[in-house]
Design brief:
Length: 106
């Protein structure tokens, strides 16, 4: 893990990359805020549950919320390294990302 981007390395066509995914460190049960396998930003899920509760029964609210969480986690798992790099570039350098999207740097 360093500050370099993928394009900073001399990775050519046909190169093989090894990706190592470390399991998340398990939090101790005494650790505050630890709630099992909830996704990050629990306040977002809590707020979303409140909005859903206005429109659905409690059982349906729970089902919809669980499906949204599964879809969210699946979307994150499917991100490629290039996707993550593009997202990071857009977040860290919005002026460059805007120019690229408008075709000025192509």
């Amino acid at each position: 893990a360093d500050e370099l981007r993928l394009c900073d390395y001399s990775i050519g066509p046909g190169s093989k990359l090894n990706l190592v995914v470390k399991p998340p460190e398990k939090a101790s049960p005494e650790e505050p805020g630890h709630r099992g396998s909830l996704p990050p930003f629990p306040s977002i899920w809590h707020s979303l549950a409140q909005v859903l509760a206005r429109h659905f029964s409690p059982a349906d609210t729970q089902k919809v919320l669980e499906q949204l969480q599964k879809d969210y986690e699946r979307s994150l798992r499917l991100l490629s390294l290039d996707d993550i790099e593009r997202l990071a570039t857009r977040l860290l350098h919005p002026e460059v990302a805007d120019a690229v999207e408008m075709g000025f740097l192509d």
